Amino acid sequence: MKTKVFFLLPMFLLFLGCSSDNDTPEKETLKPVTYEVLLFEFTADTGNNSSRLHYEIKYTNPNDVAVKGTSSVTANYNGLILTPIKRVSPYIEIGANSNYTEVYNVESPHDTQSLSPEQIKTYYIKFISAEFVFAID
Prior knowledge:
Elements: H1 2-17, E1 34-43, E2 50-60, E3 67-77, E4 80-82, E5 92-94, E6 99-109, H2 117-122, E7 125-134
Antiparallel strand pairs: 1-2, 2-6, 3-4, 3-5, 3-7
């Protein structure tokens, strides 16, 4: 009898000592970050032999936790739909229930060897969409 108890007691303690999968908290599903275009302006010819793209996009985090990630802006570049690849680091961090405004303001010189002044004046960039892509830890 003592031998049975000797073997059953450790098995009983081992069974009670194991944690169940229900003890781990479930990760909360994040709501998507929304955006609002505050400004999107393209100037094909600035008068300085260059063009300028200037935009301000406000990203709002509706979650109760801070999020980090990258932004992605898709635009129509003279009939070609592109989403330029941005460097990933450092990530954009948006606090819980707050917002972040991305400001892009770049002036680029014209390639006068391949574009005529008439072609430059007809060049356009139009906003299509924006997205905040969460970083995965």
